[in-house]
């Protein structure tokens, strides 16, 4: 159990989010062979990736 407020580090989140999305795209790419529904999830992450281009720290 976590007690107290935890501040969200927006810079850390901005750094980690593209890595997470890239991981999900790769994961869904491999999963598509065994679960056809993964293709839709992959497209969703790819769309999010495309929307994020240029919005990262320093971008």
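-> sequence recovered:
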């Amino acid at each position: 159990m976590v007690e107290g407020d935890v501040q969200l580090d927006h810079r850390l989140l901005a750094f980690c989010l593209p890595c997470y999305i890239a991981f999900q795209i790769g994961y869904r790419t491999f999963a598509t062979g065994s679960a056809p529904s993964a293709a839709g999830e992959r497209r969703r992450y790819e769309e999010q990736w495309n929307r994020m281009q240029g919005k990262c720290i320093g971008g």
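The radius of gyration is 15 Å.
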